[in-house]
Write a structure and sequence with these properties.
With about 375 residues, this protein is of the alpha/beta class. The protein has helices at about 10-20, 25-40, 80-95, 110-125, 140-145, 160-165, 180-190, 210-220, 240, 275-290, 300-305, 310-315, 325-330, 345-360, and strands at about 45-55, 100-105, 130, 150-155, 195-200, 225-230, 320, 365. Strands 1, 2, 3, 4, 5, 6, 7 and 8 form an 8-stranded parallel β-sheet that branches. Helix 3 runs parallel beside helix 4 (about 110-125). The two termini are about 15 Å apart. The structure holds 5'-deoxyadenosine (5AD). 5'-deoxyadenosine (5AD) binds near residues 65, 155, 201, 233 and 335.
Length: about 375
């Protein structure tokens, strides 16, 4: 029994059982349950959020991300406020309800600059504004909220504090535990009145099934408004990517030592960074947080160009984030290989997504597409 009455949450062992399930027929039950809960709570609308990658400068040295400060091969850019505003207008003209401003953790995007930008975008377009600018201090986050920013995305990537510390080393002089700091910021964002988004990567080297089960429990505890889930994709100019034994995209060595081909998966095994496992986590995220806005991510579409986007939408997701970043910058926002290669115009990308949405019997979302509260996910 997967679909439970409100108040009856999936237990950790049920979550784990689904994460470890390999039988295709049983998995159909999971996809069906996630799709049913998606339809009953957030409905058939698929919200399109226009994504603008405003700067690829970053002060961090995250072990997974191609934008990390040590990547000297990357040409860095920062869009001007006028450019960002022009693309926010484009988002509005295309009929999107939300613009997402994303960047590396770039101190060059000062508190004042972002404040003015948010104010202009809100005044001129009326769009919902989502920020995804990394770990910034509470004063900056408060100023941007005051200026009208509606939502903030900050993934915790993994709920395993030790793995998080390994992949997300602190800045010089940063003494607090990196994972606790991130959780603290997610709390601050909620207190400031932002809609809060977080999420994880699936298949980080060293990530076990048990730890992903805990990630899902943490989504529920945080009562997230938005949850982004994508496969880890190794980038050669990063620590995790350079050590990646198997560049074909098949699983990294198990966290608990080699697994015999015939042995069933176990809770302490390495999580594969594949499409199937990512879809399981998307489906389970829908079941544990029925009301959340969940994108079918670009990373999922990158590892499975033919089916990834549709699978995400059929297995719990209700959001897509078309990339509006100007073409001259798009390829430079290379958080992982294969991203930003599309040279489709914003109009062509929109037409493609609308056709996909219609082919699944769904419809494009109208308005801002904020989280609608029915039954609190935390109570579930
Ligand atoms: N593979 C997959 N996702 C990545 N991200 C960054 N680097 C990678 C990678 N190598 C994701 C992280 C981050 C978001 C901006 O992009 O989840 O939060």
């Amino acid at each position: 029994m997967i679909v439970k009455a409100p108040g009856q949450a999936l237990t950790r062992s049920e979550i784990l059982r689904w994460l470890l399930e390999t039988d295709a027929d049983r998995l159909e039950e999971l996809w069906g349950a996630a799709d049913e809960v998606r339809r009953a709570t957030v409905g058939d609308e698929v919200h399109l959020r226009g994504l603008i990658e405003i700067s690829n400068h970053c002060r961090r040295r995250c072990g997974y991300c191609g934008l990390q400060a040590g990547n000297s091969r990357l040409t860095r850019y920062r869009m001007s406020a006028e450019e960002v505003l022009a693309y926010a207008r484009l988002a509005r003209n295309l009929g999107y309800g939300t613009v997402v401003l994303q960047s590396g953790e770039d101190p060059g995007l000062t508190e004042r600059w972002v404040t003015n930008l948010v104010r202009h975008i809100k005044e001129e377009t009326g769009l919902a504004v989502t920020l995804s600018l990394g770990e910034r201090n509470p004063q900056e986050l408060a100023a941007w909220r005051e200026a009208g920013a509606d939502r903030y995305l900050l993934k915790f990537e993994t709920s395993d504090p030790e793995l998080f510390r390994h992949i997300h080393p602190p800045l010089p002089g940063e003494n607090s535990d990196p994972f606790q700091k991130r959780l603290g910021l997610l709390g601050t964002l909620g207190d400031l009145g932002y809609e809060v988004g977080s999420g994880i990567m699936v298949g980080i080297p060293g990530q076990t099934f048990l730890s992903v089960a805990r990630d899902l429990e943490l989504f529920r505890e945080l009562d997230l408004d938005m949850i982004g889930i994508g496969p880890f994709i190794p980038h050669p100019q990063t620590e995790l990517g350079a050590n990646w034994a198997n560049p074909s995209g098949t699983p990294a060595p198990p966290a608990s030592g080699p697994r015999a081909a015939n042995r069933p998966l176990s809770a302490s095994d390495q999580v594969p960074n594949d499409e199937l496992t990512t879809c399981k986590v998307v489906a389970l995220a829908r079941l544990v947080c029925p009301e959340a806005n969940i994108p079918s991510t670009t990373a999922l579409a990158t590892i499975d160009p033919a089916g990834g986007r549709a699978h995400g939408l059929q297995r719990g997701a209700n959001v897509v984030m078309p990339d509006l970043t100007p073409l001259q910058y798009r390829a430079l926002y290379e958080i992982y290989p294969g991203k930003g290669l599309s040279t489709a115009s914003p109009e062509a990308e929109q037409a493609r997504l609308l056709a996909l949405i219609a082919s699944m019997g769904r419809r494009p979302g109208l308005g801002a597409g904020e989280r609608i509260r029915r039954v609190s996910c935390a109570a579930g």
